[in-house]
Amino acid sequence: MFNIKIDRINKLLITIGEGSIEYDEAVIFLQDLYETINSINAEEYAIIIDTSKVKPVPSHIVPLMKESMDLCLATPFIKRFSVVMESTLLKMQVRKVNKRFIQRMTFVKSIDEAIKLL
Fold first, then answer.
1. Residue pair 80/105 in contact by the 8 Å Cβ criterion
2. Domain ranges of the chain
3. pLDDT per position as a tens digit, 38-93
4. Assigned CATH topology for domain 2-116
5. CB 69 within 8 Å of CB 26
6. What CA–CA distance (Å, rounded) separates 70 from 1?
């Protein structure tokens, strides 16, 4: 399950994922992410990605995962945060799929920690 929240007061885009992800859900999330990013002035926003509770992604979903990471990197957010993932396997998947994502994110322990760093 994925949720996307916009905090217009604090200029935050927050994505939260939990559990296993099905292909259809990943497609909808990616579409929602594109629409949400297009609805804001990203140059004024920070993004916080919390996939700390997401389980490893099946191989047929990896291209969608990569596309979402590429989108987050291509969008000119003022800051990018990622809550540290609990799953070692998911960390390895992310590192394998997109090393730049790992290099360009600021990793935090929680959404609250990211907000304090703004």
1. yes
2. 2-116
3. 999 999 999 999 999 999 999 999 999 999 999 999 999 999 999 998 888 888 88
4. Transcription Regulator spoIIAA (3.30.750)
5. no
6. 20
